[in-house]
Amino acid sequence: MEIALSVKNVSKKFGDFTAVNNVTFNVEDGKFFSILGPSGSGKTTLLRMIAGFYKPSSGIIEIRGKDMAGVEPNRRPVNLVFQNLALFPMMNVYENIAFGLKRRGERGEVVKKKVNSMLERVGLPGFGLRKINQLSGGQKQRVAIARCLVLEPTVLLLDEPLGALDFKLREHMKVELKKLQAKVGTTFVYITHDQSEAMVMSDHVAVMHAGSFEQLDTPQKLYHKPASAFVAQFVGDNNKFIVRLRKDEHGKFFALTDEGHEFKLEKTYNLEGDNIFELYVRPEAIILNPKESKEKINLLNVEVKSILFDGGNSRILVVPEKSKKEIMVSLPQNRKYDYLNVKDTLQIGWYPSASVCFKGAGGRVYDEIA
After folding, report:
1. CA–CA distance, 135 with 300 (Å, rounded to integer)
2. Sign of the C-alpha dihedral computed for residues 133, 135, 140 and 143 taken in this order
3. Separation between Cα atoms, residue 165 and residue 31, nearest integer Å
């Protein structure tokens, strides 16, 4: 498949500060690609370099194989949707979408046909004469995207476009944006700090931290096979344990906590040097009162500290015996847990395959040797 966007060894420095550090990635034509990271990770700086507002300190940005060095923002085959949308309140919907076409010198029936076609594609047929202040948040969002898409960019850049919406509308627009991108077939490059947005909508996600990519992968692999402690903590929820590892005479690996708990591990690790690891277990991987034997599963006796009811996302906080460590446990949606009460004692467990370890603070999974 053709590469719509190629970023090669791109860095950006502001004085002594490195905002983006040697980033490389490709986005295939027609794909939905997200860059996910916390505030200050460098994702918006990277997006602005692709758009042409910032010049890279080093590296190459290519769009459809053409080097963008020296190409002004208005001459690049990209369009940028900002969080504040920047719609013109004095213009109606039709005039907003037609604005870029008219600036490009197009007139008459050509503009009318393109605008009406785009209104159909974004699910707003017949909205041309509406004023901007007559639209809902989601409708404004689609008008802003339509105004960009009507110019037929190779790549549409979106800088946290759902950030200003309320929670319910944001949840709805995640699905709508994914459907819209699939329908129009334009390459989307999406910037967000919201992991749910990135995971739900994207074909591939790059997790960015301190100017670099920690991992670039499918949403499923980011979730199930994080490449670093940062990714494990940032993508989804995780219970974290500080442990030391040991290997028995059969070559099996075990993780030991300071409280004396020992957990079986499925993988093998390099124990050379500092033997301090971070172990992660996701709340949904933990089983309440498992029936499996302790030879097959990691078991802990715990006390219920809090019950966090949230419908299908309900959870409990538990504390193991002889410990102050809080562990989050997801409650499966197909069962009722009305019998649970604070201070109840029960047993929890998880399979060794559900644990992932990283050496030291923020170590990478490549410390594994098998």
Report:
1. 53
2. negative
3. 24
CA torsion sign for 279, 283, 287, 289 is positive
| pTM of the predicted structure, to 2 decimals | 0.88
In angstroms, rounded to a whole number, what is the distance separating the alpha carbons of residues 80 and 64? Answer: 17
Question: Which CATH number is associated with domain 237-367?
Answer: 2.40.50.140
Where in the sequence of the chain do the CATH 3.40.50.300 domains occur? 3-225
Q: What tokens appear for 144 in the block?
A: 């802003």
316 CB-near residues (< 8 Å, 6+ apart): 304, 305, 306, 307, 308, 328, 329, 331, 337, 340
Q: pLDDT tens across 197-223, in order?
A: 999 999 999 999 999 999 999 999 999
Question: Could you tell me where the beta strands, DSSP code E, fall in 31-144?
Answer: 32-36, 58-63, 66-67, 78-81
CATH for 3-225 (3.40.50.970, 3.40.50.300, 3.90.1030.10, 3.30.700.20): 3.40.50.300
Residue 137 to residue 165: CA distance in whole angstroms: 7
145 CB neighbour count, 10 Å cutoff: 27
When mean pLDDT is compared across 21-25, 114-118, 188-192, 293-297, the lowest value belongs to: 293-297
Count the Cβ atoms, other than its own, within 10 Å of residue 28.
Answer: 14
